[in-house]
């Protein structure tokens, strides 16, 4: 049996742990398993860049962040566009699969990557998706691997910022990863005790954010912590057309939304403001124990599905049980925060402002 495997899109802490789960299950259950690891995601599948893996390649990697196969971003919208040499990428991927006589392809990837997995399914390949992303925005699964590890790191950042903010009596903006969705910001913001949480799904009014900061100052609180998602957006920006918003991003005088918010809060409240951006640190380092368990479970479940010949699914979790979600349902949908989400409402009850 020959199984192809690749890791695609932005990395996260628990990719190796997941691949190990799949591989150990397969090697343990069958003697004739050969795993082909494609280098740097779909690029390896397109250009026949691969490694024949050995069982020992998957040993000792449970705790290692990153990916032993490397990864790259191959945007879905360009998959049907020939490369600079006129190569049809979809045909090339199918040819590699056939040439290597693969029985299936396992894709560890987020939203965009699983769209391509679904495309390959539609093209007749046996595929299985595994839900990778620190953003936790894959539709159909309650959790994705990488999310908890990233929450831990983002929370640690907020914890560190808390002590210095309190000492100096400053307003601190902590920018958390997430361009389209705010799950990471919401969870880390709550775990880190942020006073204000700004996420892309709930456009903010800067005057309300400033009012929340002023209210704290009036109550004698010497500092405020604002957790801001990379993709946070004001009500005015949300009202722009796609074209106008693109123009605003291209001409924005600040490196990111956090700095823009910081400048406005300083102007509106007269308080001293600082911005902290942990950036890619949130995707790095060792997976947390929760992710190691989740990855191992998902990997083992995917291994079993390969052995049983069940393809075309994303292997996810629903109510703490393994769930097989048809890739056709997952592709192209984002799991986003709803303004009436329980967690948002609970946070609001406690006085956390979302600036809306
Ligand atoms: O999708 C994961 C993610 O980490 C997002 O949260 C973030 O906005 C983006 O990737 C950053 O991408 P890159 O690593 O390409 O800068």
TrEMBL record:
Swiss-Prot/TrEMBL site (Important for substrate specificity) positions: 112
Organism annotation: Anthropogastromicrobium aceti
Known function: Catalyzes the phosphorylation of D-fructose 6-phosphate to fructose 1,6-bisphosphate by ATP, the first committing step of glycolysis.
GO MF annotation, one: identical protein binding
Binding annotation for substrate: 133-135, 170, 177-179, 230, 274, 280-283
Name of this protein: ATP-dependent 6-phosphofructokinase
EC number: 2.7.1.11
Subunit text: Homodimer or homotetramer.
Reactions that this protein is recorded to catalyse: beta-D-fructose 6-phosphate + ATP = beta-D-fructose 1,6-bisphosphate + ADP + H(+)
EC class: transferase
Subcellular location: Cytoplasm
């Amino acid at each position: 049996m020959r199984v192809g495997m690749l890791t695609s899109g932005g990395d996260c802490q628990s990719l190796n742990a997941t691949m190990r789960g799949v591989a150990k299950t397969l090697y343990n259950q069958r003697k004739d398993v050969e795993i082909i690891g494609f280098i740097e995601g779909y690029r390896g599948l397109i250009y026949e860049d691969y490694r024949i893996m050995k069982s020992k390649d998957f040993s000792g990697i449970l705790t290692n962040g990153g990916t032993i196969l490397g990864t790259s971003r191959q945007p879905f919208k360009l998959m049907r566009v020939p490369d600079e040499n006129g190569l049809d990428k979809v045909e090339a991927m199918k040819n590699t699969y056939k040439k290597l006589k693969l029985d299936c392809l396992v894709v560890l990837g987020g939203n965009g990557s699983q769209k391509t997995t679904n495309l390959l399914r539609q093209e007749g390949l046996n595929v299985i998706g595994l839900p990778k992303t620190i953003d936790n925005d894959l539709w159909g699964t309650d959790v994705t691997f990488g999310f908890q590890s990233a929450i831990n790191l983002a929370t640690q950042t907020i914890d560190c910022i808390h002590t210095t903010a309190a000492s100096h009596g400053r307003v601190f903006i902590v920018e958390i990863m997430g361009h389209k969705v705010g799950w990471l910001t919401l969870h880390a913001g709550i775990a880190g005790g942020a006073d204000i949480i700004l996420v892309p799904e709930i456009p903010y009014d800067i005057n309300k954010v400033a009012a929340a900061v002023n209210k704290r100052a009036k109550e004698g609180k010497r500092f405020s912590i604002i957790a801001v998602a990379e993709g946070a957006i004001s009500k005015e920006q949300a009202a722009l057309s796609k074209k106008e918003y693109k123009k605003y991003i291209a001409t924005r005088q600040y490196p990111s939304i956090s700095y823009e918010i910081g400048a406005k809060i300083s102007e509106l409240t007269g308080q001293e403001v600082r911005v902290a951006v942990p950036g890619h640190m949130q995707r790095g380092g060792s997976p947390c124990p929760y992710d190691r368990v989740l990855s191992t479970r998902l990997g083992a479940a995917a291994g079993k599905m390969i052995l049983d010949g069940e393809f075309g699914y994303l292997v996810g979790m629903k109510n703490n049980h393994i769930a097989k979600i048809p890739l056709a349902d997952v592709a192209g949908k984002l799991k986003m925060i709803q303004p009436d989400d329980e967690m948002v409402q609970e946070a609001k009850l406690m006085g956390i402002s979302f600036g809306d």
